[in-house]
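FIELD: query
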Amino acid sequence: MASCAETIATTLKESGVQRIFGLPGGEILDLIEACRQVGIDFILTRHESTAGFMADVTGQITRRPGVCASTVGPGATNLVSGVANAYLDRSPVLAFSAQLATSFYKYSPHQRLNLTALFKPVTKWSGEISGKDTAALIKKAIATTTAPRPGSVHMSLPSDIAKKEELVSSGGGERWQGKGEPRAAGGDIRKIAGEIGKSEYPVVIVGIGVDPRETQEPIQDFIEKTGIPAMVTPKAKGVIPDDHPLFLGTAGGMAGDGLFVELLDKVDLLVGIGFDPVESDKIWHIEQRVISIDTASIKDDHYTPYMEKIGRVDGILEDLNQMVTPNHKWAEKELVSFRTRLDRAMRPRDRSSQRGLSPYHIAQTMRDILPPESIVTVDVGAHKLLFGQIWKTYLPLTFFISNGLSSMGYGFPAAMAAKLEFPGRPVVCVAGDGGFSMMIHDLETAVRLGLPVIAVVLSDASLALIECVQAKRGLPSYGVGFEKVDFARISQGFGADGVRVSSFQEFEVALQEALRAQSPTVIDVAIDPGEYRYQII
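FIELD: result
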């Protein structure tokens, strides 16, 4: 008979899992070895949060659970940020953490933590593997990660249980009720069509809940047949191309958000297609009449949308296209005017200053050089709000950002995971010096794996976003400054290519050379963060 660890590995392999990200400890070695024997690669990272973020992006791309693993105690606590990010960014992730042997747990507090309780708030389900009916348990866990709304599941594996022979009962295995299970489909589609038809100023907002592989074409058909203008949230960038004539921009706390809040004052109906309030840092959805079209309800304890229809989004939109007779009053000149105002609010007067280059113009230079299918991952900070708005995205799954949790340190692990899934495409991480410092250790991971990802580090020796908040509140700049770091030289020490640039000509040359390189490249760019203060409105 197979051991519990071997049963887990076999079940994961049969479910299509190709790799596990993590950092080993003695207590998790049996599971790692069992995975090796069935042909599942173990990707060693330099920190457990890196493993969690990589599993998150893998799940987002493949729509199957990305898998990560850690040892006991501190290994598990380090994993929490990545698992929490997957939970709030609605990515299917299956996280394993080792646990102390069951006999040892009772008598020694050394590294003893209640891991089920630790992970419960940041997962759809968290529990401990008992060694009984494990295959059924793992299959249920996988199904739970992908069920609407997708998210993370955590399981702890006691080290002695991993070694024991698997037991199978006649009862069909362990059961649980996870969070985020789909509710019964509701909503009268004819009434929804009627509400859209009588709306004078409707707007479509496309969000994190859509699967672009299934819904991109139906969404574009819907807005084109109805003529309703549309915006996206950051996690849905590319579902509607930025150059589409009905595209307004990116809503949900990005740069220029004040203009979207102003626009929403005129909107009398918000048609949410996969819209999830987890992506907005404001609560304007409370005041709006929202019709939600999604695979799961967006109701919670304190909020109920005006109407909702739950089911296959593509099918619902196809039905609506047959029923809706639009009568809205949007004029093309209004949409052009809004986009023009947004562009003016984002565009700085100068390309550079004595402090450094303009982040806005760095983004435009990158967009001119990178092909449309390139993948850009963006870390968290003031630059996230700017790139989330101005980065021209033409294809889905080409822009990755941490938004529900908004976790610094996400960008570089996301780039590595994306390169593993799309090895033939250029992959560029854009990070501030604060966020990149949190993950610079995993440059070695990229070098070891032979992943020629590019990291553009926007260096201003500060936490610019927090400094902007201080300025708006009339507070002095305090507790947000760093000493300057030579990221290019440090990167070379990890075996990566590293270059510092101080002009746009140097930046263009460095980026073009990085695209041809066979190893990771870090481009360290001194920037002037001054423009953020009026872009983040």
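FIELD: remark
Residues 20 and 42 are 5 Å apart (CA to CA).
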